[in-house]
Amino acid sequence: MTNPELQELLERLHDRYNRPEFIEDDPIAVPHRYTDRADREIAGFLAATIAWGNRKAIVRNGHRLMRLLDDAPADFVRNASERELARLGGFVHRTFNGGDLCDFVRGLRRMEREHGGVGRFFEARYEATGSLPAVLAEFRSEFFAAEHAPRCEKHLSSVTKGAACKRLCMYLRWMVRRDERGVDFGEWEGIPPEALRLPLDVHTGETGRLLGLLVRRQNDWRAVEEITAALRAYDAADPVRFDFALFGAGMDRSLQGERE
Predict the structure, then answer these.
(1) Residue numbers in the chain where pLDDT is lower than 50
(2) What is the pLDDT of residues 55-72, one digit of tens each?
(3) Alpha carbon separation from 89 to 27, 32, 42, 66, 210 (Å, rounded)
């Protein structure tokens, strides 16, 4: 496949999947419940945190989680009493349980109090470092500075340990990217889209390898850097917009038909 052919394929798949119709069945539907930036930040972070496994279950449990937060996630994070936090104890999504959720709310509360929110932290630290991997590492350390049970740390991947950090990269895509389609939010204007990394999972990895965009077999941070660098050749200013193309083609296994 020549480069122009690959460009055309990526653009066609991007056009197919970067549409408002994509929202309802994707975890991004959870922060799309809200118009306020703080609500979207918190809803998006929690939805991304549980975004593994069956997509329908992720979306269903994400909406249920928001109802547990009184459908006002920013206000709940800032002001919930210990009694109100205890109501979260029954939440379960795979291995993420109510105790983990309470600890994550406490972590988000600390980010609100100390930094003005998750987005303010990411924007300020990116301005200071110019390095997204460095900011991911700093965020994890700062988030877990709040009181928490050690078991909940497994739900926030560590870039310093070489993890692909798929859910954090997806969350950043939601909050940073902006285009006329209206799927992503574009709330964090302090981080340029070219700084983003591809949310690498089994679907994007498999499709990327089929297209020759990724050679490394392991889905780790080295693979994230490799495939993102390859995508920059097709859109240096917004390489992660091709997440729609790679993920969508991988999910519905449409690639073979597209290439024939």
Answers:
(1) 1, 256-260
(2) 999 999 999 999 999 999
(3) 22, 25, 18, 14, 43
